[in-house]
Each structure stands twice: as C-alpha cells, then as structure tokens.
C-alpha cells in the first residue's frame, strides 16, 4: 500500500487527537486523556513548540470507513543527556489497526530517526509498557535496548496534588 | 544550618556544572559514560536553541579566601510533552555534593523545580532513578513521588546512533 510520511500541520491536530485517544484505548487508559485538539494546536504550533509530530497518510482510495486518510503518527521532542548531549524522545508511535503490517510504523520511526540524526542527536529513547509484546518486539528488532531491565531505570513522577504541595513550599521569587 | 542560595545557572557556571555532572555519574558508577564537554554544554544550554535549563546551589567560600561563592549542587531540566496531559517538566539531573547533604539544599531545589513546573503550566514533573539508588528513591517517595515503572509497567528503551543511522537510511516507500 502506498503511503506518505510528512510533518504534521496545525490542521492535522484533530486527526492527531483522534489517534491519541485510539492509542490510549489500546493501552487500556482512555480516561487519562485530558488534552484537546486545541491544546495540541497551541503546544505544537506556537513559536516555542513543545513537541514535533509526523503523520502517515494514505491515498483517498484507501481511506478508512469513516473517511480518514491520516492513519498513523509519531510524536517526539528533544531531550538532553548530561552524559551524551542531545537526544530525541519518541513519546507516541501509532498506526491504526487496519493499516498495520505495511511498513507504516517503520516508515514513521525511520523519519523520526532521520530528524534526530540531522539535529545531531546521539540517541533516541522511548518507553513501552511491559505487557505490550508486539511493540516490545518491534522496537527490539530495530536495535532498542531495554534500560529498565539492563540498568534498572524506573520512571517516577510528581503529579497533581503532590506537585502542588511541593510547589507551595518553594522559596518566594 | 548553612547559608546557601539557589539561582538560575549562567554561562559562567558551565565548568562547575560539568564538574558536578561527572560527580553524579561517579555516584551512579557510570563516570566513563560522560562524553559531554564544556563547549557542548555552553552551546546546548546558552545558545539560540537551549536544550536544557539549569539551576545551581551555591555557598559562600571560606572567609579567608578571596574567591566568590562555590557551586555545590545543581539541577538540570527541560520541558517534555505527554499527549494525554500536555506539558511536563522533566528533571534530567539533580545532585548536591556529599559534604553538603542533609542541610535541606536538595529539598529546596526540588520545591523550586515544582514551583517552576506549576508556574509554566506543567501537569507533572517526571524523572528516572536507578532501582539500586535506594537513598534517592526514598528521598522522592517521602515527598509523594509515584514509581510508574512499578505501578504501570513502563520500561525505558534506547536506540543508539548506529541503529538510528541504519533506520533512517532504510528503503523509502
């Protein structure tokens, strides 16, 4: 199947928002999605964007039963390692179920890798849920190493109330 | 009690920041993995497109010396994006020199970072910790941090430059 990978434009945010929800459903966490397509527009397409996004689209003759031609996306941003310097972090990679197995996921990820190399990034990082075997296999086949298994890294966060509590005790400006 | 001050890092702090990065890497038994130089830090943090933000903690120097304050701790962070909840503050490195621990400097840094997160409309502050680093895990958990690797099963993966190059030069569709 022919497909095209291109940089997302502001107008694509409705499609991206739709697919974000589809990915959340796949990960069994749909009630955790709080962003709207307006948030995505503001945060990705203002002078200081917080993420970049690539989308995969198919020609009209292959559109979905609901009429969508945008069938996949990769959302990423730049991070920094104090050991190695510039890195790229791929936050989301998603292809609609009916369009899997056609190289679209590989195509999206290859483009993220290309962007990363052009920006002199030394590595790409991502995270995967431990039960998500198809994704684990996909990334490992591309050379990904599990740093949680190998080096014991765990993700931690301060969220909502715990963040506010800490913030209230900060020294005044 | 000791007298200390926390402030935004300036370009003149780069040599001290690199010194502390190496001390933190040594604490994590990974000193030989730091390949970043002062030139990289300067360009990447204080150039046209900063990849990171940094705050430093300093103490007054010895009364008998003529030197200015001494930098004894730092935190490096940047902004990332979660498509479900929007902007996040990501804490990349956080370190206080051993002889200055136990005085509340780390606590104050964390509170200031939390305040920055809330002020800049971030929903959450994320970071990673090695599971062997019990002292740090306890420090964060005491203040309300949740371990997403344990609670939700997230695993961190990396893909190195050689694999990125291989991916990005793959066949085009």
UniProtKB/TrEMBL annotation, chain A:
Specify whether Acyltransferase is a keyword of the entry: yes
What keyword terms does UniProt attach to this protein? Acyltransferase, Transferase
Q: Name one GO molecular function term.
A: N-acetyltransferase activity
Q: Say which domain of life the source belongs to.
A: Eukaryota
GO BP terms, alphabetized: polyamine metabolic process
Q: Does the keyword Zinc apply?
A: no
**Domain N-acetyltransferase per the UniProt entry, residue ranges:** 24-171
The family classification in the record reads:
Belongs to the acetyltransferase family.
> What is the name listed in the Swiss-Prot or TrEMBL entry for this protein?
N-acetyltransferase domain-containing protein
**Organism of provenance:** Oncorhynchus mykiss (Rainbow trout)
From TrEMBL, chain B:
**Transferase: present as a keyword of the record?**
yes
| Localization annotation | Cytoplasm
N-acetyltransferase domain: residues covered: 4-166
- Give GO cellular component annotations, separated by semicolons: cytoplasm
Name under which the protein is recorded: Diamine acetyltransferase 1
InterPro entries attached here?
Answer: Acyl_CoA_acyltransferase, Diverse_Substrate_AcTransf, GNAT_dom
Superkingdom as given in the UniProt entry: Eukaryota
Q: What keywords tag this UniProt record?
A: Acyltransferase, Cytoplasm, Transferase
Q: What class of enzyme is it?
A: transferase
The answer on whether this UniProt entry bears the keyword ATP-binding reads no
Describe the reaction catalysed, as an equation.
an alkane-alpha,omega-diamine + acetyl-CoA = an N-acetylalkane-alpha,omega-diamine + CoA + H(+); spermidine + acetyl-CoA = N(1)-acetylspermidine + CoA + H(+); spermine + acetyl-CoA = N(1)-acetylspermine + CoA + H(+)
- Gene name in the database record: LOC110489635
């Amino acid at each position: 199947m022919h497909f095209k990978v291109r940089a997302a434009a502001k107008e694509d945010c409705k499609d991206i928002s739709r697919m974000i929800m589809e990915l959340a459903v796949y990960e069994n966490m749909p009630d955790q999605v709080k962003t709207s397509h307006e948030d995505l527009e503001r945060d990705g397409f203002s002078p200081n964007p917080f993420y970049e996004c690539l989308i995969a689209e198919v020609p009209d003759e292959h559109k979905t039963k609901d009429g969508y031609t945008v069938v996949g996306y990769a959302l990423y941003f730049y991070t920094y390692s104090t050991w190695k310097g510039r890195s790229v972090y791929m936050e989301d990679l998603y292809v609609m179920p009916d369009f899997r197995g056609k190289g679209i996921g590989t195509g999206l990820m290859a483009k993220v890798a290309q962007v990363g190399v052009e920006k002199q990034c030394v590595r790409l990082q991502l995270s995967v849920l431990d039960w998500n075997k198809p994704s684990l296999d996909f990334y490992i086949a591309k050379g990904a190493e599990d740093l949680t298994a190998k080096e014991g890294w765990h993700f931690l966060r301060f969220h909502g109330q715990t963040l506010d509590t800490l913030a209230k005790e900060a020294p005044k400006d | 009690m000791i007298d200390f001050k926390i402030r935004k890092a300036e370009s003149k702090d780069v040599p001290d920041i690199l010194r502390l990065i190496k001390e933190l890497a040594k604490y994590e038994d990974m000193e030989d993995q730091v390949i970043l130089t002062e030139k990289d830090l300067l360009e990447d943090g204080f150039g046209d497109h900063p990849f990171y933000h940094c705050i430093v903690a300093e103490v007054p120097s010895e009364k008998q010396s003529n030197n200015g304050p001494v930098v004894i701790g730092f935190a490096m962070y940047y902004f990332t994006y979660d498509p479900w909840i929007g902007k996040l503050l990501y804490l990349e490195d956080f370190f206080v020199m051993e002889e200055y621990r136990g005085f509340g400097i780390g606590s104050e840094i964390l509170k200031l970072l939390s305040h920055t997160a809330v002020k800049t409309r971030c929903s959450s502050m994320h970071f990673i910790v090695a599971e062997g680093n019990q002292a740090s895990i306890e420090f964060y958990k005491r203040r309300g941090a949740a371990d997403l690797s344990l609670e939700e099963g997230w695993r961190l993966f990396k893909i190195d430059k050689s694999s990125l190059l291989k991916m990005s030069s793959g066949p085009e569709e």
